[in-house]
Amino acid sequence: MNYLIGIDVGTSGARAVLFDENLNIISSASEEYPLYQPQNGWAEQDPEDWAKATIKAIKTIIEDSGVNKNKVKGIGLSGQMHGLVMLDENNSVIRPAIIWADQRTEKECDEITEKVGKERLIQITANPALTGFTASKILWVKNNEPENYNRCKHILLPKDYVRFILTGVYATDVSDASGMQLLDVPKRQWSDEILDILEIDKDKLAKVYESPEVTGKIRKSIAEETGLSEDTIVVAGAGDNAAAAVGTGVVTDGSAFTTIGTSGVVYAHSSEVHIDPKGRVHTFCCAVPNAWHIMGVTQAAGLSLKWFKNNIYEGFDPTGEKASYELINREIEEVEIGSEKLIYLPYLMGERTPHLDPNARGVFFGLSAKHNKKNLARSVMEGVSFSLRDSYEILLNMGLQIDEMMITGGGARSRVWRQMLADIFNCNVRTIESKEGASLGAAILAGVGAGIFESVESACEKYIKKGKEIIPSRENHKIYNEYYEIYGELYRNLENSFKKLSKI
After folding, report:
1. What torsion, rounded to 10 degrees, do the Cα atoms 412, 414, 416, 417 define?
2. Can you identify the CATH homologous superfamily of domain 302-405+473-503?
3. Are 234 and 217 in contact (CB under 8 A)?
4. What is the pLDDT of residue 237?
5. CA atoms of 184 and 490, how far apart (whole Å)
């Protein structure tokens, strides 16, 4: 029996999962690390934390499983996108990584748009200039930390820094590179035009691969530390959502998924390039060679519920049970849909789709003395779902066919949230039996690279097992439509106020 490892370098922690060649889980391990917010709207992490956590997780699953190291044929990497890692000539980390959720680069986005032109930028990179993307982060360091910028010899994305530690290779994949705003997305290669205009040295960027391609092998020191063989290959891998798409079987036209993790995503596969000229949703290369995906993003999806649980939903219930997601799910079932006329805007970290507004902030609208923490909890879930519907509606309006919607991420574990999404989308939704998502997708990519699977599509068709289908309630959808209309009005009414608030 051969084995594969899928690694997901997430925002809250790194996860390593050991699968056998039939994609059964043999062992898994996760290691957490902190997120730093030195200023309001900033978000940073220490790349060395990612590497240490990944190595520890790999060591754990190898030791716990007891598998023959020579039978571990490949590793696939997935991880948070858009983060900026800068290395000096000695491959030392120059400064903390500026990660996907950071919103400090509004001025640099304006600079990119002015220099390249909005229309041309979207034509090449398939996206407008965004604070979350890597290019604006590079320019921010150039503009604000010139000493650090001048020391920089290599620019890597989060999962690709981990790859470098594991293999000594500077490499990335087309899906993750698509989120840097430096890739020609239709052509699947670095854009010399963009790089020249922004005066970014192409030599600092990693080589770009298709996701299942082999990028290198485990270096000797890492093999000794983890218990792996030096012959274990490492494939290019994919950004977290592209890997999750593979892990949920969304690899053919007509398939889509919604995920609720720290952020939230509505994602649809396409064998052709579809670009929104308004730049409201993102078009990236996907993990399937020569295919693309279109996705909308809610910055603070699961993060909204986590924030609410940790900061507001405090105390104990009569049984002495500490506040938890399980408790929240049980209690919100007692609340009617609409949360007693309470609406939540999930803009804790600004918002991406459809507003592209780093200044947007979270709001509870309609709050009254009759509301309690149960009402607030349900409104958080409903508000996140409304935000995801914004993305869903745009994809439909672009002419994308969505025959089936899969649900994944931490939010998919909630029966209440699954039904809520079905009702708000007015679409049948399904779960998958595996809960691994990105890690499973990364392992499948590794299996293709190692020659265990013929293709990404054939592996998914054979091994991805779908769960129960959830049918929407027409009555609930009708009620939700009334709230969704108000939800859409709120941002438009508050947009200028958000901007004013940011200037104080």
Report:
1. -40
2. ATPase, nucleotide binding domain (3.30.420.40)
3. yes
4. 98
5. 36
Interatomic CA distance for residues 264 and 261, integer angstroms = 6
Beta bridge partner(s), residue 155: 86, 205
Q: Looking at this protein, which amino acid is placed at residue 6? A: G
Distances (CA, A) of 139 to 98, 305, 394: 12, 33, 30
CA distance 326 to 349: 25
Count the Cβ atoms, other than its own, within 10 Å of residue 202: 11
**Positive or negative CA dihedral for 346, 279, 270, 75?**
negative
Strands (E) in 92-174, as ranges, are 97-98, 154-156, 171-173
Residues of the chain with pLDDT under 70: 315-322
Question: What residues have CB less than 8 Å from 95, skipping those under 6 apart?
Answer: 86, 141, 145, 148
Which alpha helices (DSSP H) does 152-213 contain, by range? 158-167, 174-178, 192-198
pLDDT at 362: 97
Q: How far apart are the C-alpha atoms of 399 and 416, rounded to whole Å? A: 30
Kindly list the catalytic residues.
240
Q: Which fold has domain 3-248+437-467?
A: Nucleotidyltransferase; domain 5 (3.30.420)
**Residues counted in the chain:** 504
State the Cα–Cα distance between residues 405 and 395, nearest whole angstrom.
12
Per-residue pLDDT, 132: 87
Q: Which residue pairs from 486-491 have beta carbons closer than 8 angstroms and sit at least 24 positions apart in sequence?
A: 486/343, 486/365, 487/343, 487/345, 487/383, 487/386, 488/390, 490/343, 490/345, 490/363, 490/365, 491/345, 491/351, 491/355, 491/360
CB neighbours of residue 285 within 10 Å: 32
pLDDT attached to residue 493: 97
> Would 3-248+437-467 and 302-405+473-503 be classified into the same CATH topology?
yes
pLDDT tens digits, 120-139? 999 999 999 988 899 999 99
Burial 338-350 (b: 16+ CB within 10 A, else e): bbbbbbbbbbbbb
Domain segments of the chain as ranges: 3-248+437-467, 302-405+473-503
CA dihedral (193, 198, 204, 210) in degrees, to 10, reads: -40
Is the CB of residue 244 less than 8 Å from the CB of residue 393?
Answer: no
| Cβ–Cβ under 8 Å, residues 241 and 75 | no
